[in-house]
Amino acid sequence: MPVSRPIWKGQLRLSLVSIAVELFSATKPNAKPSFRQIHEPSGKPINYEKVVAGIGPVDKDEIMKGFEYEKGDYVLLTDDEIDAVKLETRKTLELTQFVDAHEIDPIYFDKPYFVVPADELAEDAFRVIRDALRASKKVGLGQLALRGKEYLVAVQPTGTGLLMETLHYEDEIRKADPFFSSISAKKADEDLLEVATALIDKKTAKFDAGIFKDHYQAALRELIGRKLKSKGKRVSTKEEEPEERPSGSNVVDLMAALKSSLEGTGAPGKAATKPKASPRKKAV
């Protein structure tokens, strides 16, 4: 059972197959120490005022968001205008396209998330999607509306679960040519290439992130630990109660839905009920 709260709950859909799932961040938000500026004489945190050059501090209700369309020129937008174009968080993530994993350039990948079945009833269909992606060596693509924005995402199997990664849209990626255009296209010297290739072969091993340690962060935490010990000051927080998981009662008759999806005979988005007499097998 995950110890953190899901950031999203909804349906993972493949044509007529809908699976109740939950989404969890795959990275630790507090893995690295963060700092605030402190006023040393009083020991209080520093706060920042909103100021305008030549005017000084201004009231919050006098502040608007501005988009700089030319240097020094802005178009002003109200919060209501921005809120009007925000997307509602949808409860469905539909996989609409599949590609080979190697087709996605690593530069597009942004943040990873774990996708898990919401309950035991959803596991049967979840395993089918997971294993089908693994067998076909494909990555599922879709778009997820969350927190007012729409994210392009890629879903692929990892271990016994699924990994969803948000992707950058094409217009967010810088073109490489301006950075690489001055680099010669001349081939490397054959002798040097042979030595470098041999060195790479010698140092080749299976990837294991655990062997790499962030020595700076370790030293920083050690410093913080010494400071806390010398001052005897501690901070504690209460653990939050986990939310109740949603029911997976809308899981479809899997084989029928998959066949209907493949043949295109079913109505999109319609889910059949799961036969009650069919015993559920344990996850493998």
From TrEMBL:
Q: Name one GO biological process term.
A: DNA recombination
Asked whether the keyword Cell division is assigned, the reply is: no
Q: Where is the composition biased (Low complexity)?
A: 264-276
State the UniProt keywords alphabetically: DNA damage, DNA recombination, DNA repair, DNA-binding
Report the domain of life of the source organism: Bacteria
Which SUPFAM superfamilies does the UniProt record give? SPOC domain-like
Residue span, Ku domain: 55-185
Q: Which residues form a coiled coil?
A: none
Pfam families referenced in this protein's UniProt entry, alphabetically: Ku (PF02735)
Q: Which CDD domains match?
A: KU_like
Keyword Signal tagged: no
An MF annotation (GO) of this entry: double-stranded DNA binding
Annotated segments matching region Disordered: 231-284
Q: What does this protein do?
A: With LigD forms a non-homologous end joining (NHEJ) DNA repair enzyme, which repairs dsDNA breaks with reduced fidelity. Binds linear dsDNA with 5'- and 3'- overhangs but not closed circular dsDNA nor ssDNA. Recruits and stimulates the ligase activity of LigD.
Q: How does it assemble?
A: Homodimer. Interacts with LigD.
Name the protein family: Belongs to the prokaryotic Ku family.
Q: What is this protein called?
A: Non-homologous end joining protein Ku
Per the UniProt record, the source organism is Devosia epidermidihirudinis
